[in-house]
Write a structure and sequence with these properties.
alpha/beta; Aminopeptidase; Rossmann fold; 2 domains; 7-stranded mixed β-sheet; 5-stranded parallel β-sheet; [Citrate [pro-3S]-lyase] ligase
Length: 339
C-alpha cells in the first residue's frame, strides 16, 4: 500500500507548502480556516486548504499527481469540513483539476478554461438565483446593475448610481457581502441605503457569495493584480454574465474608472472583455473629483486617519459624514488607524 498520510499543516511544513503551491502558480493566503499537507512517507508532496465553505489552494507535486494522493487529500479536507458543520461546499481551483473534483460529485458552476468554480450540490447557486428573483421580481424595462464595496460610501459612489439611475428604468446596487473590509458589511449596506434614499428607481441588496467573493475573486480583497488575479476576475465576470445577469434580466452594468487600484482596474478590464459575450453592456463612468483628484474610499480613510474632517465632508454624502463623526465609528476606528 502506498505510504500516504494527511495532517494539518504545522510550522515545519510551511516552507514546503509554499513551494508546492508556487509550483502550481498559487500562494498561501492569510485567513485560511484550515490547511492540510499530504505526505509520502515524511516528504510533503501536496496541500489543500479551505476558507469558510470554499476549498482552495489545491496542489500536488507533478510526479505524484497520478498516484492517488489527490483523492486522499481531498477526502481529508471534505471530512474536516463535515466535522465543522459545512455540508454545501464550494471549490475554486485550476481547470486542469476538474476531473478530480467531478469524481467527488462536485458540480461545475463556471469553467473559464483557466480556473473553475464548483459546488458540492446545485442547491447553493439555485437557491441564490431563486432568492434574487423573489427579491427583485420580474421587470420589463431596462434593468442595470452596479456592484460596489463602499468602504465607505462616497460621493463618487453616489455619482455612479445617479448616472445609472438617469439612464435606466431600474438599478440594482449589489453591496459586497464579504466581510473583509475595514467597514463591516452591515455598516456599508446602511450607508448606501441612507445615501440614495431620494432615488426612487434603485434597489440595494447584498451581493451574496457569487459576486466578488472568496469563492469567485479572492484576490480582490488582498489587492493582488497578478496573472492569477486576472483569471479569477474573468471567472467572476463569466458568472455574472452567464448566470446572474441572465437570470434577473440585467442588460447593463456600470463601473467607475479606476486610477488607483490595479486589482480593480484589472477587474474592469475583465468585465469589458467578458460581459459582451452575454449581451450585457458595460458602461465605464469617469470618477467624480474634488480638488482635481478622483474621489475614492481610500482617500476618505486617509483623511479619517489624519482627522481632516474639513476636506472629508466634501467627499461623502451627508449621511456618511454623520456616521463618520458619530460614536458608532468607535468600533472600527482602530482598524482605520492601523490600515
Amino acid at each position: 500500500m502506498t505510504n500516504y498520510s494527511v495532517s494539518e499543516m504545522n510550522n515545519n511544513d510551511l516552507d514546503h507548502v509554499i513551494n508546492i503551491l508556487k509550483s502550481s502558480n498559487l500562494v498561501l493566503n492569510d485567513g485560511m480556516t484550515y490547511t492540510a499537507v499530504l505526505k509520502h512517507g515524511d516528504t510533503p508532496i501536496g496541500t489543500c486548504s479551505f476558507e469558510g465553505d470554499v476549498i482552495k489552494s489545491f496542489a500536488i507535486r507533478p510526479c505524484y499527481r497520478a498516484s492517488g494522493g489527490a483523492a486522499i487529500l481531498l477526502t481529508h479536507i471534505i471530512n474536516r469540513m463535515f466535522d465543522e458543520g459545512i455540508y454545501n461546499m464550494k471549490l475554486f481551483s485550476s481547470s486542469e483539476n476538474r476531473h478530480i473534483f467531478e469524481s467527488f460529485q462536485f458540480n461545475c458552476i463556471c469553467d473559464t478554461g483557466k480556473v473553475i468554480l464548483m459546488e458540492s450540490s446545485f442547491i447553493g447557486i439555485e437557491s441564490y438565483i431563486k432568492s434574487l428573483k423573489e427579491t427583485l421580481g420580474e421587470y420589463k424595462g431596462t434593468r442595470s446593475a452596479i456592484v460596489m464595496n463602499c468602504n465607505p460610501f462616497t460621493l463618487g459612489h453616489r455619482m455612479l448610481i445617479e448616472r445609472a439611475s438617469r439612464e435606466s428604468d431600474e438599478v440594482i446596487v449589489f453591496v459586497l457581502e464579504e466581510d473583509k473590509s475595514i467597514f463591516p458589511f452591515n455598516v456599508r449596506m446602511k450607508l448606501v441605503q441612507d445615501g440614495i434614499k431620494d432615488l426612487s428607481n434603485i434597489k440595494v441588496i447584498p451581493s451574496g457569495p457569487y459576486m466578488v467573493s472568496s469563492a469567485t475573486f479572492p484576490e480582490y480583497f488582498i489587492k493582488d493584480s497578478s496573472v492569477r488575479a486576472e483569471a479569477s476576475a474573468e471567472l467572476d465576470a463569466h458568472i455574472f454574465g452567464s448566470i446572474i445577469a441572465k437570470s434577473i434580466d440585467i442588460t447593463r452594468r456600470y463601473v467607475g474608472t479606476e486610477p488607483y487600484c490595479q486589482t480593480t482596474n484589472l477587474y474592469n478590464n475583465s468585465l469589458m472583455k467578458v460581459l459582451s459575450k452575454y449581451d450585457v453592456e458595460l458602461k465605464v463612468v469617469d470618477r467624480r473629483t474634488f480638488n482635481e483628484k478622483p474621489i475614492s474610499a481610500t482617500r476618505v480613510r486617509e483623511y479619517l486617519r489624519e482627522g481632516n474632517m474639513d476636506i472629508l465632508k466634501n467627499l461623502v454624502p451627508k449621511s456618511t459624514f454623520e456616521y463618520l463623526v458619530s460614536d458608532e465609528l468607535d468600533s472600527i476606528i482602530n482598524k482605520i488607524l492601523s490600515e
